[in-house]
Amino acid sequence: MAGYKILILHGPNLNMLGRREPGIYGSMTLPELDQLLARRASELKVEVDSFQSNSEGALIDRVQQALPDVDGILVNPGALSHYSYALRDAFSAADRPLVEVHLSNVFSREPFRHHSVITPVADGMLCGLGADSYLLGLEALLNIIKKQRG
Ligand code: DQA
């Protein structure tokens, strides 16, 4: 197996998972979610590096630092999804397969959550499936990378 490296990014307020609006986001904490992802990644024989920040700039710095080693990016941009052209530009510049995920079904929530400025530069987007959005997103991202590499 090729030993692909995937950067997992969690945006603002996702450090509060488990305590933050559990009716919407569930009771799983971020460390628990990262553990699930690490376990799935080892089954898929892919290397993952997980990073959370409440700061747009720190997320952009992490994307830039991860290059050229990273083969794909899995991101839950949190509220930045809805307005961050800076994060979107960082992903465009990175020019790597990108899968966007959301725990909640953003389309069944407030209108401002219905639009993401990130989705147009992503290969795909999954939402509303809780932790499965991330787990299925990881698998989909790996499939995209493998197809690209032939
Ligand atoms: C979220 C949805 C966003 O609208 C919200 O701002 C978040 C979490 C989700 O995972 O469902 O922070 O990205």
Keywords:
single chain; 150 residues; alpha/beta; Rossmann fold; five-stranded parallel β-sheet; 39% helix; globular; binds 1,3,4-trihydroxy-5-OXO-cyclohexanecarboxylic acid
Summarize the structure.
By secondary structure, the protein is of the alpha/beta class. It is built from 5 helices and 5 strands. Strands 2-1-3-4-5 form a 5-stranded parallel β-sheet, with helices on both faces.
Commentary on this structure:
- The chain is of the alpha/beta class and 150 residues long.
- The protein has one domain (5-149): 3-Layer(aba) Sandwich (Rossmann fold), CATH 3.40.50.9100.
- The chain is 39% helix and 17% strand.
- The chain has 5 helices and 5 strands.
- It has helices at residues 22-25, 30-44, 56-66, 85-94, 131-149; strands at residues 5-10, 47-52, 72-76, 98-102, 124-127.
- Strands 2-1-3-4-5 form a 5-stranded parallel sheet, sandwiched between helices.
- α3 (56-66) packs parallel to α4.
- The radius of gyration is 14 Å and the shape is globular.
- The mean pLDDT is 96.
- The structure holds 1,3,4-trihydroxy-5-OXO-cyclohexanecarboxylic acid.
- 1,3,4-trihydroxy-5-OXO-cyclohexanecarboxylic acid binds next to loops.
